[in-house]
Structure formats: structure tokens, C-alpha cells
Write a structure and sequence with these properties.
With 367 residues, this protein is mainly β. Helix content is 13%, strand content 56%.
């Protein structure tokens, strides 16, 4: 339908990000006192995959969240275009503030439980179609580490998103539930691979005031998502320009998603057609960081690179397929259990039509 098309899945995971500290052995191979006080399995997990550059990716929902940003903003543009007839000139300028709190607990000599609670709020600058809102997400994952080179995990996700549609005073409430699977594999001293699979199901309810009535609609939504990242690790002993104690991580990543919105009959008796959305992207970056060796240690991080969208069902509205990526962060280990990190991340479209920026205050506990 062209009239009164309702956006029903705008907030599935905008800006959901967290991070984990990069723990390492001391330069002479010894572990620190704080590491030995943790459970053996969590220390082994962090030293092995932190040094390999995989912990930052595994513990982060950044790429997943940005993928939802692109799809959801595209749907926002699509619905506005259907209702207004304006097919171009759309821009995205979104700011997100986020506080993720996570805990990693060893439960045996080869198994752990990871729990993450992430709260964020987002707001977009005024445009033809724009929104603000908030999202809360809880993730609980079982991790199994049968060897120093391999870890797999399976877990559950619960999420609630609320979105305010600024261009028409509408609102959307969207509870989600789903599963997540991870596979981390360290191929050798220099290269490692992280894979993630996510499946989520939701039930979005939208309300849009029309003056003479309030248009309501409810749609079932489902998504499947796969992400794969190849990450390298090189130290200052191998890269001459690196400061002492720093690591460089080249990264090549891909993400693919399919999102389905079911057909429905809205409160005015009009049918809303089933919608299937496809998205895929590739990303190449360089990440520089200084690992944490013990309590009181600082961990500066810097990452930059490029992203390209291969497929996006709605990319014609903002006309952006290529992006600059940049990230800067500073973390500190506090005591033997807590790592605190402040970070700023942004994506900028080549044509200037899209800018996403996120401010994060991250708390990571390890036991």
C-alpha cells in the first residue's frame, strides 16, 4: 500500500556495542597477580583471544547494531517516501549514548558464562524522516574453550526497544527474543577468525496519530544475521613504527542479514504487505591498542578504515554505499576484576548524507 504505510521494526538493535579488555602475559611470559586470582579459564580465554584481537569483536555488538541502523533508517525513509512521494534527499545524522555492563565468570576448567546488559538512547537530527528512542538488551551466553585456539558459545538475547517517530509523532514498541552463536578460532600466532550467528523474533506495535484517529498496527518480525571477521596480530617487535608494548590488528570483516516483516491488517482495515529486506557489507580496518598487564594499567585504542555496502534494499534514499570508519578509546583496569573503557565511534558516508556516532562508557567484570 502507498497510503499510511506503517514502520514497524525500526529499533532492533541500534548502536548495541560493548568491549572487552585485551589481557596479555607479561613480556617475559609471566602472568600478573590479578590474572592468577581470576579463574584459570577466564584468564586463559582473555590472554589467548585478547592478544589475537578477537575479544573486542566477540564482546561487541557494534557491527550488528550499525547494520540495524542502516536497515531501520532505510525503512523509515521508505515509509516516508511511500506516504509523501519524496524519493530522494534523505539524510541520517544519529547520535547514541550507551552504557554496557558485562561479566565473564568461569564455571569449570573449560567453560564460562558471559552476561551483558546494555542500555542506550539515540537521537537523530531533524530530517525528512527521523527518530529517537531507547533500547535495553540482555545477553547470556555459555562459552566452551576445549583448547587454547578454539572457543564456541551459544546464548540467549532479550531486548526491548522504544522509538519515537519525529516526523509524524508516532511511536513503536518492539520486544525481541533470540539466540546467538559464536565461534572463535586462532589459526596461528598472527591470524584468527571470529564468526557470529544471530536469529531474533519480535512483535512490533506502532501507533501514529492522524488527527481524526490513531492508526495502529502490529507485525511479527524475524531476522537472521551472520558476521565473520579475519583479524591479524603484529607486535612492536614486528612492526617498526609501533610504540613499545603496542599491537596492530588488521581486520577484514563481512556481515549479512535478512529481515522479514509479516503482513498485517492495520486499525483502518488496510492490508500492509509482507516485507523482506536484504543487507550485506564488507569492512577493512586497522586497529592499534596497548594490552592491559595488570591493575592500574591504561589501554589506549585507535581504529580506522573503510566500509562498503554490497546489498541494501533501501540504499537509494540516502544514496550512501561507502563509509569512513573511526574509533578511539581509553581503558583502565581497576583492581583485579573490573575494566572500564570510554570510547567514541563514528561512521561517515563519502557523500556526507550519513553520519552515525556513538559515545560509550563500558564496564567489564571478570571472575
Amino acid at each position: 500500500m502507498k497510503a499510511l504505510t506503517v514502520l514497524t521494526a525500526v529499533a532492533t538493535g541500534i548502536g548495541l556495542m560493548t568491549a572487552a579488555p585485551v589481557f596479555a602475559d607479561m613480556p617475559d611470559g609471566r602472568t600478573t597477580g590479578a590474572q592468577t586470582e581470576r579463574s584459570a579459564i577466564t584468564s586463559r580465554f582473555q590472554r589467548s583471544f585478547g592478544h589475537a584481537g578477537l575479544l573486542t569483536i566477540w564482546s561487541s555488538n557494534e557491527i550488528f547494531g550499525i547494520t540495524q541502523d542502516k536497515i531501520n533508517n532505510g525503512m523509515l525513509h521508505f515509509n516516508q517516501a511511500e506516504n509523501s512521494g519524496v524519493l530522494s534527499g534523505y539524510r541520517d545524522n544519529i547520535s547514541t549514548a550507551e552504557v554496557p555492563i558485562s561479566a565473564l565468570v568461569g564455571i569449570s576448567d573449560h567453560a564460562m558464562v558471559y552476561t551483558n546488559l546494555s542500555l542506550n538512547g539515540f537521537s537523530a537530527s531533524p530530517d525528512l524522516a527521523y527518530a529517537s528512542g531507547g533500547i535495553g538488551t540482555l545477553t547470556v551466553e555459555y562459552l566452551n574453550m576445549p583448547s587454547d585456539n578454539l572457543t564456541w558459545g551459544i546464548g540467549a538475547i532479550a531486548q526491548y526497544a522504544h522509538t519515537n517517530l519525529k516526523q509524524n509523532d508516532g511511536k513503536i514498541n518492539n520486544p525481541w527474543g533470540g539466540i546467538r552463536g559464536d565461534l572463535l578460532y586462532k589459526m596461528n600466532d598472527h591470524w584468527a577468525l571470529a564468526n557470529r550467528f544471530v536469529a531474533q523474533w519480535g512483535n512490533a506495535r506502532s501507533e501514529i496519530p492522524l488527527g481524526f484517529a490513531t492508526l495502529t498496527d502490529r507485525q511479527h518480525t524475524a531476522l537472521t544475521y551472520w558476521q565473520s571477521d579475519l583479524v591479524g596480530t603484529y607486535s612492536d617487535a614486528e612492526i617498526g613504527f609501533l610504540p613499545a608494548g603496542w599491537l596492530m590488528h588488521p581486520r577484514l570483516g563481512f556481515a549479512i542479514e535478512e529481515l522479514t516483516n509479516s503482513s498485517s491488517i492495520n486499525s483502518l482495515g488496510t492490508k500492509v504487505d509482507k516485507q523482506k529486506i536484504h543487507y550485506s557489507e564488507g569492512m577493512a580496518t586497522l586497529r592499534f591498542e596497548k594490552p592491559v598487564y595488570g591493575p592500574g594499567a591504561w589501554s589506549p585504542q585507535l581504529e580506522f578504515g573503510l566500509k562498503h555496502e554490497f546489498v541494501n534494499s533501501f540504499d537509494s534514499y540516502s544514496n550512501e554505499q561507502n563509509f569512513y570508519y573511526s574509533s578511539v578509546g581509553l581503558g583502565r583496569q581497576i583492581g583485579k576484576d573490573l575494566f572500564f573503557n570510554l570510547a567514541y565511534v563514528r561512521y561517515d558516508g563519502f557523500r556526507g548524507n550519513v553520519r552515525n556516532q556513538t559515545f560509550k562508557a563500558i564496564f567489564s567484570y571478570t571472575f
